[in-house]
Every structure is written in C-alpha cells, then in structure tokens.
C-alpha cells in the first residue's frame, strides 16, 4: 500500500495556504507553493519567522489596517476554536526589489483541534481578489462576469483537501435550510452515511431532529452567534437499521459569512470523545465502588494522597477510635491522632503509618499504643503501605486499623490462666511422684519376698499395676508441662541400634499382654543416635495405643526400616478407623478416642507426647486410617543426633 506524503501534497496544493503556530507571534510552520508565488516569497525566507515580520503593513499607507485586522481574526479563531471568515481585506505585500504591491485578499482562518479540543495549528487560507477589485474599479465587466470570476476564484481553493485529512468531523451547510455543501470522510464515518452533500440536515439525519439540533442550527444561522458544546450526547442511526447509538461529541457550530457579512451558512466541527468519556466514567464508577467498599469496610480505613493530605476516612474510624476523623491537610496535623511510643511519649511525625506508607514502607499487624477519643489508652492493630500507579510511582498511602485492646486483654488473661494451669499440673505431678514411687518400691519389695502369703500376692500385684499406671500418667503430665512451658521435651541422644532397641521394647510389652499377638518386621541399617528413654516412651505409647483401639484377638504389627539418612517406624492395627474430625487434632493434648472400655481411659496425652518426642529428634509423624486398611502411625527420625536442652 502506497504511503502518502502529506507534506508534499500540501506544498503542491493549488490553494493559497499558510500553517501557523498558535503562539503570540503566529510563527509560520508551512506554506504552499501557490502562496509563495502569489506573495513573491521563497520558502526558506518565511518558514520559522513571525507572520507580521514577513508581511508587515505598507509603511506608505498611514491608514493600513491589514496586520491589525488579520491578528484580530487569528486571535478570534484561537479563542472560539472555530473558523473565522474575514471580509475582503486590502493587504499590500513587499516586492523582492523593494517597495510594496497593492493586493486584496479574502482570508479564512481555521483552527485545527487536537482530540482533547486544544488548538494545534491555524490554517490561514486566502483568495487573491486583487483582479476582482481592479475589474470592479475599472468597470470593464458587468456584474455577471464579476460574480462568475468570484465563483471561479473560490473554486480554485483547496480547503476541502485539507479538511479531508483533519483529525475531526467537518461539514459545511448553506442557507436557512441547512443543506450540506461539504462533509469530510471523518464526518461521514461519524454519522454512518455514504454521502450527505446536497441534502438538508433534517433529510440526511432525521434522527437528530427530535434531539433539538435543528433548533440550534436555526439559532446560529439567525443570530450569527457560534454554538460550542463539550461532551454533548448525540443519538445517531449509524447502522441505518433504526437502532440509535449514543456518541459523545465536542461541537463547534460557527456561522460563515458572505462578502457582505451576511450569514450564508454554518461550519460544523465535531470531535468524537466517546471513548474518553466512557473510560472516564468507568474510572469514576470504579472509584465510587471503591469508596463504597472502603466506607463500609469492617475496619477503619484512611487514605492520604501523595502530599500527605487525608482524602478518605471511613465511618468505622469513629467506632474504633471513639472520635471523628480529624482534618489532616499537612503533616503536623497527624498529631491529632495520638499514637504513643512504649515510653508514653508521642511518636515522631514521620513515624505515622500514612507517612511511612508514602515513603514506601509497609507493615501488617503492627500494634500501636493509642489514646482514644474518651481519653483511655489501648492498642490498635495497623496494616499500612503505599499505593502505586502502573509505573510504580507512589500516589497514595493506605492504612487499615482496628481496636484490639479487648482482644489483647483477653489473650493476656488466657495466657496467665493457661500458665497457672500448666504450673499447677507440674507442681501436682511432681508432688505426686514421690508417694507413688514409694508405693511402687514398697510393693515391689513385698512381692519379691519368698515367704509372702499367696493370698496377698494378687492384691499387691494390682496395687503395683495401678501405681505404675499412675506413674506413667505423672510422667506424661510432667512431659506435657515441660513441652508447654519449656519449649519442647528435652532429649539426650546416644548411639543406638534402632532395630534391636525397638524389638526389646516390643518384647517387654508382649510379656505384659500375653493374650495379644505382636508382630515385628525389620529391614536395613538401624544404627544411629537417639534418646533411648524417649524412644522407649514413643514405642510404648504407639503400641499401647494400637492395643487399646484394636479388636481383642487381632494382631498389632511393628515395622522398622533403615533408609539412607533416616529410620522409619510403622505401627499398624486393624479396627474402626479414626474419625476425620479427630485426626485433625489427634496430636493435640487432651485428645482421645473412644474404644468403649472405661478402664483403659487416659487423659489424652499419649500421642501429644509422641509428637513432641518426634519433634525433639528433628523427625515427623503421620497417620493414615481407612476402613479396609486399618490405622498406621508412621514415624521418621534422622540418624544424626538432634539434642534439645534439658
């Protein structure tokens, strides 16, 4: 596709045109060859120069008004953003050899507008009427010949060619009936018509008659006053189907005048700003939605613009801070929102959350000491940070905050209560351990006597079993207290054969439960370093748990496996699977299942202790429990020592 050289087209146009800058000097930016020939100038001598430096008034004529009239017309076109048609002007031009040559011109000054309605250029078009004036003076031709000559001169203009490529919809209508004399391609595309020339506006665009535009055209034609409107909505049948489409237009209806200054038509210029208007309205609607969301947010919200001025403070502020939002127009005003340092003094201005956000800092859940509107002091939780535009520039700062004074008070009370309860458990467990140990020692001593009456052996055995169970419970309570208060269960790892040791513990449990079948399977290298006492406690708890929650007579299996860096212990039993809701909190303290046997009921610390022992060794524990497969606890422990202080 051939690319048109519009500068070449302009310069070779047969019309007499200057393109001027809309500055105070009306600097010459472009000129056609025809204009250069008509004014006896050269392009290099006029481009970039001030218009009235190139074409001054004839100094030999004291009454010359050419420059004054032309400047007034150009300034009027600038101010109204509409073409200005000047009456016939006498404006002599300098001769290359000196002196001035008499000339008469018919000028039209037309502004070229940008999409946002600003004047980008001025087109100064003239028809050389010198010959017409001369013939009129000489009377060498009759009026008919003179009018014919005027029509021929006007026909030579090439204004239409320029208007065709203007970045706006342009049309010219003539007479009181508003008949189209010209419409550029942009105008035809806007109204959705192939042609309108020769038809009246009412005939060509019947849909706009009911919208009042014919009345506006009548008024402009009758009064000679231009009509200017921005973002005016017009409903057009652009598809020709009768379906109207709304477009937003910036309008200029400028009356044109005949040589006798009577209005003979109207110059129409329209810039379609529909896309801009709709985009702006979408932004405004989005801003309104955001404002509504922030205004009704469940937290207090404040937003500051880039200068630090608070531009939004929602209604939750009064509920949270117990005072209305203060007017904050400068940084010093922030001290109306009293935030205190830990020592009770006000924080520095630059440390206020909104100002920190403007510096690019952010925080989530920062707790601040605040003096509320009723004079009380408390704690607010703040979340703040910068808001950035698409280029990453900070344009605002946002802070969300809420009063957490009561929450902190309840948490502190709960912490103190929990601390007291855990200390109480530790004290009671420790104080119970000594008498229980004495019972176990005494009972064991009695049972070892050879002369013990057989009638006493059975009750003493029950006493010993109960005392040992109580001792295990005390140990669990002590471990629980240590884990909760001391940050974990202490371990002292040492060299150990994982397979041999766990098998030994299983054998001891088998002796205590001769009625049950305990199966064992072991593979791989079992060497490593672990705390033997804690490992025994882990195995006892897992096997005891499996025996408790599996059907009587069913086997319980233990598998140990050595891998490259870890060892794995699996304890499996059949029976009713663990409910899903219990599995989620299985390793929390005071959680236990229900096997229907109240005699074996515990306080629910066994699996919690197991989990703590595994954690103390740097390992992990998982559980699977399915109806068809049973329940399996899997423990994975690293071989390397992982000790915790104790």
Description:
- It is a single chain.
- 38% of the residues lie in helices and 26% in strands.
- The protein is built from 20 helices and 26 strands.
- The longest helix is centred in the middle third of the chain and has 43 residues, at 405-447.
- The strands form six sheets. Strands 1, 2, 3, 4, 7 and 8 form a six-stranded antiparallel β-sheet that branches. Strands 15-14-19-18-17-16 form a six-stranded antiparallel β-sheet. The chain has a five-stranded antiparallel β-sheet with strand order 10-9-13-12-11, sandwiched between helices.
- Helix 16 (454-486) crosses helix 20 and helix 17 crosses helix 18 (532-548).
- With 646 residues, the protein is α+β, with helices and mostly antiparallel strands.
Task: Provide a brief overview of the structure.
The protein has 646 residues and is α+β, with helices and mostly antiparallel strands.
- Identify low-pLDDT runs: 596-603
Mean of residue pLDDT? Answer: 85
The counted number of beta strands is: 26
Q: What percent of residues adopt helix (DSSP H or I)?
A: 25-40%
Bulk shape: elongated
Biggest sheet character: 6 strands, antiparallel
Radius of gyration: 49 Å
- The separation of the N and C termini measures 87 Å
| H/I helix tally | 20
**How big a fraction of the residues is strand?**
25-35%
Structural class: alpha+beta
Question: What's the arrangement of secondary structure elements?
Answer:
Elements: H1 6-11, E1 16-20, E2 28-31, H2 33-39, H3 43-46, H4 51-54, H5 66-80, E3 84-85, E4 89-90, E5 93-94, E6 100-101, E7 104-113, E8 119-128, H6 130-138, H7 143-155, H8 159-164, E9 169-174, E10 179-183, H9 185-191, H10 201-204, H11 213-223, E11 227-236, E12 245-257, E13 263-272, H12 274-295, E14 300-305, E15 310-313, H13 316-321, E16 339-340, H14 353-358, E17 363-371, E18 377-388, E19 394-403, H15 405-447, H16 454-486, E20 494-497, H17 498-512, E21 518-523, E22 527-530, H18 532-548, E23 556-562, E24 566-573, H19 580-583, H20 606-616, E25 620-626, E26 630-638
Parallel strand pairs: 21-23
Antiparallel strand pairs: 1-2, 1-8, 3-7, 4-7, 5-6, 7-8, 9-10, 9-13, 11-12, 12-13, 14-15, 14-19, 16-17, 17-18, 18-19, 20-22, 23-24, 24-26, 25-26
Helix pairs in contact: 15-16, 16-20, 17-18, 18-20
